[in-house]
Amino acid sequence: MPVLTPEDVRVPADVLPEARDTYIDNFLAATRGTGKLMLFACDQKIEHLNDDFYGEGIDSADNDPEHMFRIASGGIIGVMAAQRGLVAQYAPSYPEINYLVKMNSKSHLVKTTQDDPYSPQLYSLDAVLAMRDAGVNIVGLGYTIYVGSEYEANMMSEAGELIAEAHANGLIVVLWVYPRGKAVASEKEASLIAGAAGVALCLGADFVKVNPPDATDTASSAELLAIASVAAGRTGLVCAGGSTVDAEKFLSQLHDQIHIGGAVGNATGRNIHQRSLGEAINLTKAISAITLADYDVQEALDVFNGLEEFELD
Predict the structure, then answer these.
(1) pTM over 0.85
(2) Residues of the chain with pLDDT under 70
(3) Which residue stretches of 54-151 are H helix?
(4) Model confidence over 14-72: pLDDT tens digits?
(5) DSSP conformation class of 216
């Protein structure tokens, strides 16, 4: 497994000199020293309310929010993304987790047919920095932008300022960028996914989370994702995990996204936390084996099924 040294980390120019070492430490922590990102996305309790945590096909343990923290603590992840309040409530019991605070969120109740999506910032950066100064292991921030929404300018402006301030304080930033709104006919059309990646680059994000594009008659999703990975430039592109599917199918898709599509990682939520604790922990290890250590699909499946151990040094 390739390991980066501090000298290998490319530091953006908007990181202030006094925050340079902090940024490098946070980047290496979030990527487990590899430059690749395994993000455990735990922001759905606002995004999807309780729909993703209780119901048919969801393990009963998932209705308890602490289930996500138990997974993150017992499994292998790079960073856990969650809203500030969720982190504030549970971080004292799980201080070892690398946290990425999701700065904006909205519920799914207002549909696009009713109004274009808008997700304003929920709290100030100062509130997050105060938590970090108090000892919470916060390494970065996250923010969602809906390009194509009539409110996209508001979200871009907010995200751009947030990234500049975050970098100045040594934090990394992951943008969730989704084409969505009445002006968007197909949210997963390949050119729009590539455009979303380019938006994140122009705003200065370290990583961008996008949905994998829909396949066409002539190209697979992973092949089309490669266009977005190039368009992202020096912003690392990671794919959303989506709804829960069979582990082998998920790991195969992830492997293709990385090795064909050029992704530098993944951002997975439901596919992990909707499972029982043991199964979820094993899946984080299998995902990390592919993302961070270049395992093939069968090797990762062996990790998931408990036939092979996977640990990071």
Answers:
(1) yes
(2) 1, 313
(3) 66-74, 84-90, 125-133
(4) 999 999 999 999 999 999 999 999 999 999 999 999 999 999 999 999 999 999 999 99
(5) -
Could you list the beta-strand ranges (E) of the chain: 37-41, 79-83, 99-102, 138-147, 172-179, 207-210, 236-240, 265-268
Taking the C-alpha atoms of residue 289 and residue 231, their distance in angstroms, rounded to an integer, is: 26
Q: What is the pLDDT of residue 1?
A: 67
CA angle 110, 116, 121 (to 5 degrees): 80
CA-CA distance, 259 to 254, in Å (whole number)?
A: 9
User: Which residue type occupies 24?
Assistant: I
Q: Whole-angstrom Cα distance, residue 283 to residue 247?
A: 8
Dist. CA 214–CA 242, nearest whole Å: 13
Tell me if 207 sits within 8 A of 247, measured CB to CB: no
The catalytic site residues sit at 178, 209
Integer Cα distance of 44 and 37 in angstroms: 19
Distance CA(2)–CA(161), nearest Å, equals 33
The Cα–Cα gap between 122 and 246 comes to 35
Structure tokens at 155: 């979200």
Q: How many residues does the chain have?
A: 313
Report the pLDDT value the prediction gives residue 242, as an integer from 0 to 100: 83
Phi, psi of 227 (to 5 degrees): -65, -45
First-last CA distance in the chain: 10
Residue 273 has what pLDDT? 98
